[in-house]
Structure prediction request, 509 residues.
Amino acid sequence: MSARVAVAATSAPAVDAGLRIAAAGGTAVDAAIAAITVAMATEPGVVSALGGAFVTIWPAHGTPEVIDGNVEMPGRGQPPHRFGQGVRQIVTSYGGGVTLYAGHGSVGTPGTFAAMGLAHQRHGAVPWAELMAPAVEAARNGYRLGGAAASYLALTHDSVFGWDDQTRAFVHRSDGTVVGAGEVMRDPALADALELIGREGAQTVYTGALAELIAADMAARDGLITAADLAEYRPQIRSALRTSLAGWDFATNPPPSIGGPVLAVMLGELARRPDRTWRDVLEVQRHVLEYRFHVHDHSTDLEEDGYALLETVERHGLAGLPTSSSTANVSVVDSFGTGCAITASSGYGSGATVPGTGLMMNNCLGEPELNKLGLHALRPGTRLASNMAPTVGRGPNGELMAIGSPGADRITTALSQVLVRHCLMGLDLQEAIDRPRLHLSIRPDGSARVEYEHDPDLARAAAWSGLPVVEHGERSMFFGGVGAALRGADGSLRAAADPRREAATGVSD
Prediction:
């Protein structure tokens, strides 16, 4: 008997892929892989296949685990003069102004397919090629460009995605104008590449034909990734970080990830506040995010510093802490009791496409917020920092939830506000996602400002803080795109998705 599933994803085609795979006998993990692959194939600019991902899985009968497929610092065997090359500085108006680096030198060694391949080996039930098939079909037969991708391309089509001939041709019409929402997009080269991955397995990205194409393009255009970087990449299985909230047991991304520990501390501190006012939310965010800025963002040992954060808060509370973007998520639960959340990121996009493959590459080395030590400062083989925090939890009455969000450093603040509202305050899951959000941004110089969605209560809390404020209007994509799937205590299935970002939900018949 096939499992029934509830799916929350970034688009209707992604949800349909998850439902289709479940109907074919797939698990929650199979459905999540198929859905996120469709997202990567149909949201150009927002997310792409050659990035990084984390897969959080809580099997029906087993302990939770996180498969770390985050990007790595490349450059094995490269001479010293190659580091610092191959990047172009770009200033965009996204999110009120973001400076980033694009180009081949901004590309980290991708891990998404390695992580999904390992997740499928450990928890999958249908053939790998079937998981790739919906994305192959979408790329080959055509899909309608969604609003989130269209709005991001409208801001970056020339600066980020206009310098590479293949990328430029794909995101522009024949008259040179950028593609818009609702237009039918086709990418036969990407379809062929995904079909090859389906036929030969994820390893073709690392030691097969696609690996050869990636390494050759990097060598020709001042990139750092070598054949050795790809061949030596390994996804890592990590014991999930566990945190409790109102009887819920949540499993999330552990160190060296930044996202999981930050989320765990925020949830724990908000749970201790009896009233949980917006002032409480601001105070918790300020303590935790300023600590992150001063410690984690400049850390040379993210694993050690991640556990130090958790231990410090457990012993001393927030008083013990010194003070001074482009992602996709899929959440799936199945009727057998397995939950899976996958968050994948390619940064803001490097603008580069591997010739002949349709595969756009990440710019994770060029995201300033993840590389505070400087451009190309890490040793080759080092995992980069990450805000991603895909989470699966079990409730006090046997409920099962998978939840996650895109949104760079807004991931943890979005998830913490949604989970507190649902688990502690008893709000319906969709209402918890819909309600307005607040985020305390730490600027590159260490100063803070309050960013919030239009709401009188949030405006008063922001004014109380005494900090500079930015109002973003109602339900801005800047504040993430939370998606959650829930299996109730009675076995019922439902899902909830964020109106801030074009998203969809679906439940098996």
The first helix runs from residue 12 to 23. The chain has a mean pLDDT of 90. The longest strand covers residues 327-334. The radius of gyration is 21 Å.
